[in-house]
Each structure stands twice: as structure tokens, then as C-alpha cells.
Amino acid sequence: MSLSLITRKFTVEEYEKMTTEGIIKPDEKVELIRGEIIKMSPMGTRHAAGIDRLIQLFSQKLGQKIILRVQNPIRLNNNSQPEPDLSLLIPRADFYVAAYPCPQDIYLIIEVSDST
């Protein structure tokens, strides 16, 4: 006999509401990926150093041609709002204060991994 789990997928709006209502705590490292709330691993020194190297590289090479975001949310669709290690964004005067960047705003996203 096989057992199947019943899961529930969440939307970005539901995920954000869980954050504002305190269901998801501010210090919890989670991301919404394909409707699932995923617990992220703690960052080690190799991971942090890799991000720092990339920040320096992209800042020196691209400067004002991009907005460089570090571990901030982007909205990919209605059920995914990851926080990639780096996002290279099309510059905007408001620095995306009205809404998180969407696919049409993104040049490149990078997730650093020191183990896989």
C-alpha cells in the first residue's frame, strides 16, 4: 500500500500575509518556491565569502549600469518569491520601492553554493 501526502501550495500574497501576521517569524530563513515554503540552510563562511567576491566583481565591472541586490526578494510569479544571493537588476530611480522586481526587471540572479 502506498501512502500519498496531501500538500497545500501557497501564493505570494498568502506567504506575505503569513509574514505580516507573524506566522512566519522575521528571523526565519525561508523562501517561497513553487508554492512551497522552504527552510534555507544557514550560511557558512565560504558561502559568505563567495557572495562578497561577486559583489566586488559586479560592482567594479558594472557600477551604475545595474542595481545589485543581495539576498532580497524577487517575485518570479504568483507562487515563487525567492531571495537569491545576488540579483542584477535593471536600474530604476525608485530602486523598486513600489514592488519587488519581476522577471522583466532582472538581468541575472545568482545562488551561491559551497557544497553542491
Main β-sheet description? 3 strands, antiparallel
Q: Radius of gyration, rounded?
A: 16 Å
Strand content is 15-25%
How many E-type strands? Answer: 5
Numbering strands along the chain, what is their spatial order in the largest sheet? 3-4-5
Number of helices: 2
Structural class: alpha+beta
- Average pLDDT across residues? 94
- Helix content percent band: 10-25%
Overall 3D form:
globular
| Spans of at least 5 consecutive residues with low confidence | none
Distance between the termini: 34 Å
Order of helices and strands: HEEHEEE
What does this protein structure show overall?
The chain has 116 residues and is of the alpha+beta class. It is built from 2 helices and 5 strands. The strands form 2 sheets. It has a 3-stranded antiparallel β-sheet with strand order 3-4-5, covered by helices on one side. The mean pLDDT is 94.
Question: Could you name the key traits of this structure?
Answer:
116 residues; alpha+beta; two-stranded antiparallel sheet
Question: Secondary structure elements and their pairing?
Answer:
Elements: H1 12-20, E1 30-33, E2 36-39, H2 45-62, E3 67-70, E4 86-89, E5 106-110
Antiparallel strand pairs: 1-2, 3-4, 4-5
Brief synopsis:
With 116 residues, the protein is an alpha+beta fold.
